[in-house]
Task: structure prediction
Amino acid sequence: MFRMRNILHCSILPLAFPAGPLYLRAIPKEAEQMDLRNIAIIAHVDHGKTTLVDELLKQSGAFRAGQAVAERAMDSNDLERERGITILAKCTSVEWKGARINIVDTPGHADFGGEVERILSMVDGVVLLVDAAEGPMPQTKFVTSKALALGLRPIVVLNKVDKPDAEPDRALNEVFDLFAALDADADQLDFPNLYASGRSGWADEDIDGPRHDLTALFRLIVNHVPKPRQLARADEDFTMLATTLAADPFVGRMLTGRVESGRVKTGQTIQALSRIGQKIEQFRVTKIRAFRGLAQQDIEEASAGDIVSLAGMSKATVSDTLAALAVEEPLAAQPIDPPTISVTFGINDSPLAGRDGSKVQSRVIRDRLLKEAESNVAIRVTDTPGGEAFEVAGRGELQMGVLIENMRREGFELSVSRPQVLFRDVDGQRNEPIEEVTIDVDDEYAGAVIEKITGPRRGEMTAMKPAGAGKTRIVALVPSRGLIGYHGEFLTDTRGTGVLNRVFHGWAPYKGPIPGRRAGVLISMENGTSVAYALFNLEDRGRMFIGAQEPVYQGMIIGEHSRDNDLEVNPLKGKKLTNIRASGKDDAVVLTTPVKMSLEQAIAYIDDDELVEVTPNAIRLRKRFLDTHERKRQARAAG
Result:
C-alpha cells in the first residue's frame, strides 16, 4: 500500500484506507448497467461540502461496517487536512436505490478555479451548498457563474441551518438574486431547495422536517438531475475528453474524464488527439478504472456517460481527446481563465543552501514545475534568460503557496520572489486584473478598512450593508496589485476579527501606482548564530522575525524596522566580559516573541528587491543581493 503524501501532485487518486485495499477486483459488465447521475458539489470555502459528501458516503453504504474512516475523507492530502480546504477536485460514487450517483467534490477557492472549470464539463447537474448564516460568498459566485454558463440546473442546499445565527430565508433570497445577476435562465431560476445540516447528516424539504437522514437529497438528485445526454450516443465511435491527469506507481500515467460517446474495452487500441486535431499518440488501453465509493475498481468496459480513468498512454495530457482510431475531430475543451499573477522560482543560493533539502539543482526544480504545469492547466511555466530561475504564472497567492508548500515537503529548496501582476494590452491600452473583495468586519473598524481600500489601494466600493451581529459587509472592486500584502495589514486594522474573501472579477484599465510596504527591514551584516543579548538591544529598532540561537547570514532579513529605511545590524554581538567587578548583577535577558510568518504571509510581505528562502525546515526572508556594496550598486543603477 502506497502512501498518499508521496503523490501530492496527483489530481484524482482516492485516499487509501487501512481497512481495505484501494483497488478492488474487476466487476462484471452487467453490474454496471444502472441508472446514472453525474453531479458536482460547489460551495464557498468552509461551507461544509466535504463534510456533506462524507455523510452521503456513509448513508449510501459506501463504507462497510466497522471500517475506519477519517473525518473529511475526501480531503485526501496532508495540506487539505491541515488547512481544512479542498485543493484538488476529486471524484467518488454512491449507490442509492438502483441509481449510481457520481459525485465530484470541487475546490471552493478561486485560486484553484482551473480544477473547477474542467470538472464542470463532466457533470449534468450541480448541488450548490450555501451557509445559512453567511449566504452566498464570492467563491460561490465564481463557481456558480461557470456552472450556469454551461446550462447546468442547480439544486440549492441551505447548510448549517441549526446554527444559532442561521437565517435560511435571507440566504435563499440572496441565492435567487445571485442567479438573476448571473443571467440564469427560467429553468435555472426555478431551482429546488433543501434545508440541511451536513455534520448532523440530515436534509429536508421543510425547515421543520423530521431531520432523520439525507433521503430527501438523494431523491432530489435522482429526480431533478437529468441522465447523461451521452447515453444516447452509446453506439457511436468512442470519444472522451481528458479533464484530470494522475500518476499511479503501478500502472503509470492515468487520464480521467467522462466518456462522451461509444464504449472502450481493456486492451483496445485508441488514439489521443490534441485540441487542434493533431494526432499525439496511438496506444493500447491497459486499465479502465471507475470510482466506487472512496476506491477505484477495475472494470472491463466503460460506456457513454460514465466517469472513468484510463491507463496506457505516455504523452496525452489534460484537454486532449481520447478516441477510437476512426475519429478525426477532437472534442471542444472548456477554455481556462488566464493567469493573473506570476512568481519567480529560483535556486537557493544563500550560505545555508543544501543543509535541509536534497533537491537544490535548477534542473530538478524545472522538471518538477513542468510536471505540475502538465496536470494543472491553470499554471504556466516559462524559463528566464539566466536559466537558473523560472517564472510561474497562476491564479493567486494561495495557489502559489500550495505549490511551494508541496515542493518543500518533497525536499526542495527554493528562493521565491514577490508576486507580480500580469498586465495585458486591450486596444493599445494597458489593462490589469481586478478582484471583487467581500469583507465582513465589526462596525467600529469599517472606516479604517474603507479608507485603506479606496485610498492608496485604488479600490472602488460597490456595496456596504449591515450583516447582523454588529458587523458590516463591504463589497469593493480592487486591483490585484492593491491586495498583494494587504491581508496582514487588514488583520491588524480589524484586530484579527475581519474576514476577507476575494475573487477574480475582470480586466480594467491601469489604475496608477500603488505604494508598497511602508516600513524598512533590519538586515544582518554578519554570518553566524544569533545571540539573545544582541537581539534584546535591537528590539527598540523594530519587530524581530528570528529568535536566539538561530543561524543567520549577511543579507538575511531578521526583523522589520520601525522607520521607512533599511538598517544593517549585527545580531551576533555578545556582551563584552571584563575582569572588573560590577556593582550590580546581570538581569536575565527576556526577548519578545518573534513574529513567525506563514509561507503566504512571507511571499506577500517581501519587496521587489527581496526573496523568500524556502527549505523543508525553514522559511527565511533575505535581500536579493546579499552583499551590501552590490545592493548599493543595483540601487544606483535602478535610480
Observations:
- DSSP finds 15 helices and 36 strands in the chain.
- Residues 22 and 295 are 5 Å apart (CA to CA).
- The two ends are 59 Å apart (CA to CA).
